[in-house]
Design a protein that fits this description.
This protein is α/β, with parallel strands linked by helices. The chain is 29% helix and 18% strand. Strands 7, 8, 9, 12, 13, 14, 15, 16, 17 and 18 form a 10-stranded mixed sheet that branches.
Length: 445
């Protein structure tokens, strides 16, 4: 087993060389003009693995996909020739910047590994594109600030996050409405069951496949040898590229918890995060894994967030996947398969969950599917149901959960300043050194 101390880990993040051909992206287009009801959207899809392919199929209902991109050329070629995506006519790229350079593209779908989301999304905004980006939107707390600033600098561009639970009228929206109407009383505790990451390793270091640009895939992350289990879907179980279940299911369920509690505005959030009850599959030192050939995200945890108003939100790997929302009058449980509890069985929300109530949750727009709402907002203006600003409040909690778990202790968060206080090591983990040549643009920050 390879041992690495924290100093070596940080050194690797700062000195690893990027590909010589990778240069900063320069804005070359401005395609944000509003479209009429008869216009077809022109769409580019960046990241066309399993989730990216599914999203591309959804986008194709609303426009023409004229370009696809993936660091894995076999995936790009497959999407190009998919009869529901590129139809053999789309351009296929392995460098997303070439796709962004196309002035005719007005919508970008970003479904890459998590550590690429912020950089590509910001550069797409700079190029005048509307953005659909899969969750989790960011890799770090510091990236939250950058992407918020970029969105504020481009107010005429629509940006939606792929947290589709916000568009589930029968389950999650119903639960949120019950909370908003006070039918459950004052909320006291919300438990977000998000399961634990898988464990695995040691994994063999091998040569990357010829169809994969491994250096491009790594992007801002440290330069390391290729392992099959670091790449494609398995990237989720490495803190270098993601946050394990904290940012996977956490991006969904914490989002619903904050929505139900009306804590989606900037300046709200936890003040105390307890990560003492957490276990990782490898030994950690000062918040960093000491082995580089095992999955390293937490597989067993119970993180307690205390909010300024007294509400407790628990993020746990234990129990059923879903949300248990407890109030002074009653409690309900909701996940993607069911919504249960006495308030549901006795229909406490009868006549209190009308079309008008649904529209209110949809920011006064008509209820429709998640992607439909995105394209409606492009045509009509306004924020989509899953907007960047509220999602960043969720991402704060996801990243704080991971930092507290990695350090296995309590940390204090100031939701007004968005800074960890009283813990220099924890505060240093709010940002990461980005590999030279893959830096994320700063817009107004």
């Amino acid at each position: 087993m390879t041992q690495r101390n924290r100093r070596e880990f940080i050194k690797n993040t700062s000195v690893a060389a990027a590909a010589a051909s990778f240069v900063p992206y320069i804005q070359t287009s401005a395609s944000s003009a509003p479209l009429s009801a008869n216009d077809r959207f022109t769409i580019g899809c960046i990241g066309v693995g399993s989730m990216g392919t599914g999203d591309a199929h959804g986008h194709a209902k609303f426009g023409d996909i004229v370009a696809v991109c993936d660091a894995d050329s076999s995936r790009a070629d497959k999407a190009k020739n998919d009869e529901k995506i590129g139809k053999g006519k789309a351009e296929a790229f392995t460098d997303y910047r070439k796709l962004l350079d196309r002035k005719d593209i007005n919508v970008i779908s970003v479904v890459t590994p998590d550590h690429w989301h912020t950089k590509i999304a910001i550069e797409a905004l700079q190029a005048g594109k509307h953005v659909f980006c899969q969750k989790p939107l960011t890799l770090t707390l510091e990236e939250n600030l950058r992407i918020r600033a970029a969105c504020k600098a481009n107010p005429n561009l629509v940006f939606v996050v792929g947290t589709q639970q916000r568009s589930d009228k029968k389950l999650f929206m119903r639960a949120v409405n019950m909370a908003h109407k006070g039918l459950l009383g004052d909320l006291k505790k919300i438990t977000c069951g998000i399961n634990g990451s898988p464990t695995g390793g040691p994994f063999e270091k091998v040569a990357p496949p010829a169809n994969l640009n491994w250096d491009m895939w790594l992007g801002q992350a440290p330069k390391v040898d290729y392992m099959e289990k670091r790449c494609h879907y398995e990237f989720r179980w490495w803190y270098e590229y993601s946050g394990g279940k904290f940012t996977d299911w956490g991006a969904h369920h914490i989002d619903i918890a904050l929505w139900a509690a009306k804590l989606t505005e900037q300046g709200t959030g936890p003040v105390d995060i307890d990560g003492t009850d957490s276990v990782h599959p490898v030994e950690f030192k000062d918040g960093f894994p000491t082995a580089d050939n095992y999955y390293n995200t937490s597989h067993d945890f119970n993180i307690i967030h205390k909010m300024a108003n007294g509400l407790e939100i628990v993020v746990t790997s234990r129990g059923d996947n879903g949300l248990l929302i407890e109030g002074t009058k009653g409690q309900i449980f909701v996940n993607r398969g069911k919504i249960t509890g006495t308030p549901i069985e006795e229909a406490w929300d009868k006549d209190a969950y009308t079309d008008a109530d649904v529209s209110a949750l949809y920011k006064s727009k008509k209820y429709e599917g998640h992607k439909e709402n995105f394209y409606t907002c492009i045509r009509e203006g306004g924020l989509p149901v899953s907007d960047v600003y509220s999602h960043l409040q969720t991402m704060n909690m996801c990243h704080l959960s991971a930092i507290a778990a990695r350090l296995k202790r309590k940390i204090r968060w100031n939701p007004k300043t968005e800074q960890i206080e009283g813990d220099a090591l924890a505060a240093s983990m709010q940002a990461r050194v980005q590999r030279a040549g893959f830096e994320i643009p700063k817009v107004g920050v």
